[in-house]
Design goal:
Chain A: Keywords: Cell membrane, Membrane, Transmembrane, Transmembrane helix, Transport. The structure holds 2 protein chains of 2 kinds. Chain A is mainly α. Chain A is 66% helix and 1% strand. The longest helix of chain A has 32 residues, at 83-114. Helices cover 79% and strands 0% of the residues of chain B. Chain B contains 13 helices and no strands. Classes of the chains: A mainly alpha, B mainly alpha.
Chain lengths: 315, 272
Amino acid sequence: MTVLATSRRPAPGGSPVSRPARSGASSVGRPGFIWALPATIFFALFALVPLAAVAVLSFTSWSGLGDPRFVGFENWETLMADPVMLKSLWLSLLFIVLGVVTQTPLSILLGVWAAGNQRNRAVLSAIYFIPLLLSSAAISVLWRALLDPNFGIPGQLSWLFGDGNLLGTQSGAIGVLIFVGMWQFTPFHTLIYQGAARGIPHVLYQAAEIDGAGRVRQFFAITLPQLRNTAITSIILMVVGGLTTFETVLILTNGGPGTDTTITAFYMYQEAFQSFDFGVGSAIALVLVIVATAISLVVVKVSGYDKMNSSLEGL
Amino acid sequence: MKTRPNYLAGVGSFLWLLVVAIPLYVMISGTFQTRAEFGDNGPLAFPTSFTLQNYVDAIASGFGRYFLNTVIVTVGVVAIVLLLVPPLSYAIVRSQSRAASFVFRFFLLGLAIPAQAVIVPVFYLINTVGLYDNLVGVILPTAAFALPICTLILSGTMRDITGELYEAMAMDGASPARAFFRLVLPLSKGGLSTIAVFSALQAWNGFLFPLILTQSENTRVVTLGLFNFQTQYGINIPGLLAAVTLSMVPVLLVYLFARRALVQGLMGAGGK
């Protein structure tokens, strides 16, 4: 809990080093920048430099052998004329929206509930979190097996699932991917909301009770507004997570039927590592970064998160 | 804050419990049934026989080797994280240089960089330095991508160390290094175990880097083994479920013994 409370403070805009000024002029425990250097160089080598390199590679043609060859805007022209690329962007958007609207209400409700002090809560929470520990690969393989048309659950419950081939149609395949995403990520977001809900000051509820507000009223008038910052963080994580969904698509649908679940992140993998067109793959990767950053900025802007300093605003 | 039981929320959370638990039940019960029985009775039926053959099959298909590879990757990643993150967080929390403040923003930005975005250049880099199909080539980028979140978590812990404690050390005329080893590290034990468990989980569950950066069976990790098992023997559902179950056992054990560290790490991950 302390982790949550303290690490939330240096949100965008808040400078972390402006705070410890309280320890006065003491120079003890004031390490030089050199302490940060090894990690910074290491991270730059594998994340920042490649991020710049992906931009350069998007203007080259490279098949994995020999050296990349500069081709100007060729890859970008290819992409813009590529119907699969356009479709993948729409599918990604659909994934993000469906992911956010299914996971957010559920995780807020579960998180607020789990923040309470019921007796059975601890046991239930322990089970809720299990999907969170499993790899996307394991989860996808598990669900693929569970949804097998012949030997899986749909075959046994045919009154509910019809012919049982859920992954055979576009709507079925998207539904499965969204559901598996929910199964996998709701625990994580629940945990975030649970932490935040515990941090809401009790005085607010006591005041509301004196004013005669019921439980539902309290939820909408106090809990939800107080969870606003948390919701923004959670939604940004969902957006980036949805945009970069990969293992589930690869293992559950392989982008199909046809290209009906080929979202942009998966298309990038196909172009780069299955068609060995690393130039086009890099261009798609760059699109992913731009879209992820843009959506996150929009969420931050629209919510006014960048202007807030305290998560307990108005208190 | 809650005095009356909230029945509506209770029912809702019970329903979600079923959604989470039923697949896990089917998974476990399926692994102990023969293929024929599983096929005849369906996944939701109670098992009527008991066999360990599926686990034998899964291990025989190479999972022992995959486990070893995954352990190597996990240990390597945790070692790098524990070596690099504490000094970095110390500098972020305590350094008065502007550069340290800049570095913190740099790592916050890093949180938003998805691995997919840089996978092509990372592939190029690993290829160029000759680490393709080598576990070291998987360890390095996996560790790098664990750094931002671990830095965030550990900086949060280190911020709780009060200035008075540093001032007490100042009386003794301690150097920054001495303060780090005598004060900061001992008081950050909770955060250190959190980032160790957290980065271990990321390494254990990693898929994209091994998929792109390894090829042969000698370097295959568990997650890739599952994917491979699924493509090759997708029809052997109990065997597949046994493989999935095996891949989860170490993580569930860690969950049992280090639940607090893990949950705190995940809460911190969201609470940024």
